[in-house]
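To whoever is on call:

I kicked off a structure prediction for a single chain this morning and the downstream step that reads the tokens threw a length-mismatch warning. I double-checked the sequence; it's 619 residues and nothing unusual in it as far as I can see. Pasting both halves so you can look.
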Amino acid sequence: MYLHSVKLVNFKSIGDYNNNEIIVEPKITAIIGKNESGKSNILEGLSKINFTFRDKSAFLDDNVNRNVDRGAYNLFKIILKPTNFEIDKGVIEDTEIEITKTKYTAKGGILQIYKSIAQDSINKLKDFLINIGSNPFGLQNQEYTTYKDYLNELSQEDYIDIYKRNLFLKVCINKKLNIPQDKREDYNKILSNAEENWKIFTSFFPTFFYRNTNKILFSTYKYEDIQNELANNNYNPNSLLREFVKVIDIPNEDFLFAVKPGMTSQQITKRNQIQKLVQDKINKAFNNFYTTEKICLGIEFNAGNIVFTVNKENGNVLWLSERSNGLRWYLNLFIDMIANEVSKNVVFLLDEPGIGLHVNAQRELINLFNHLAENGNQIIYTTHSPYMLAIENEGIHRIRAVVKGQDEYSYIYKTAYDPKIAPESQYDTLTPIISALGMNLTDTFGPAKNKLNIVTEGMSDYIYICLMAKQLKVDLRDIVIIPSEGASNSVNICMILYGWGCKFLSIFDFDEEGVEAGGNKIKNIFNSDIGENYSYVVDVSESNIEKKEYKSNPKMIEDIVTRDEIDKFCSTNECSKSSKTLVAKLLSNAVENGSYKLGEKCINNFKNFFIRLGLLVKS
């Protein structure tokens, strides 16, 4: 099952209202918002969810929103959806789970899974105990009262309290020696079967892994530092060495003995053992986890120091610090999650994962997120960086906005361009998206509700349209022209404008990208006809599109300017045509300063273009 949504009621800055629910994408969800808006509170709240054990820290008084009435408490309402595999097995209902300080109810699809996998074996265990007697373990006082409560819960059919059923099994395991000797063999068989089926059942739940730290494995460690770090959890808090030692499953004293200066046969034996453990416990699993390339983490011992290396398939050996930030980030994540016993079906909660990484490394992280998600995991992360937002391929749908209201509550919006976001919060909240769309923050962009927002597919389109609007004296007082970077980004900008309740018209080239990634998308999303919310640089009809004339005879803004005009300008001014934007800028400057005069064909083409858009009246 995968996570669909969570209502975080009264958790820290989040209150009890409609906008306290985070809708999660099946693969990757990005959360944006100003500092102190509540992004980290969302991740922390999600991290408190455990489907089999109650996390008491989730319900501490410090976690209850300070603005709510006395006596209020935290509440988690969770929706899980079945995967395709589970649907094929007949599980079609969503799972609804509600968790409070004192209550846990799970119903829907997960109840269906429980009945098909674990119910019979759990009931057999219960019946066996009842046949022995009302108190088969000889429990006293509160233990006996609690045991009877667990038995009563097992009779519930409409929902299940997974915490109580898990604790019931723990009692059965911990107290099994209290079962009469003559019944113990049969009991152990029934218990073993119940344990096995319960483990299978609980494996359907996703596991939350919250990484709000930038702990890393350093390339080198000195003996004294290793000694201090293994002895004191607060020593070198940014290091993953403790987790590394835990993952390779070796006692701290053995690890220190291997690192200590010296070359005794016992030390050499222990060092060889550690190197084999690294191979068995880390490298084999990591190369299933990270499939971009095959690498091996190595550890070398040298006069009281250890050095971590990365060995490539071709035999090259590099220090860990010499490898890319992306690979090191992935390796650090892997060691951390294994140390915390997280393996599969994981919801990764990552707080500002791109901090400290350069632009290319941040972009590499997005690719790594995609790889993680392809392995059946979900990623929820916070960011302020435009480079950590993958806008292409409808990625704008994966972004959630968090806004702190004047009442000091954090509000979560499913779309970052929700019109209910207060105007004073829109600009700061959307800054990373606007930057990711390739727009300059100094551009006129925003809720121009009393104007027509014209979105161009590229910067050269923007320059030519602005130039010719001035030349033909088009009245621009009621128009905002917004440049984009590509047809798909134009669609994203139009969706933001629509969310803000603004009028918009997107202009596309009549080519494959302009039609298939641009005009057709606008048509389907907004149920629009050509000329309503979108248009092309040339006058075309649906018939031209159906015949795919945009493939056989594509037309772009340069065809409206005319290729001959551009050739003439470039040859006269000795400029290269390698950059369409640069040519457009140079030509525009030359026309505006009077050093170049446009031909009649270009002028007439744009006159007809503006008439078709309704910006000029036909004379």
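Update from on-call: the warning came from a stale cache, not from the record. Cleared it. Sanity check on the structure: Residues 441-447 have pLDDT under 50 and may be disordered.
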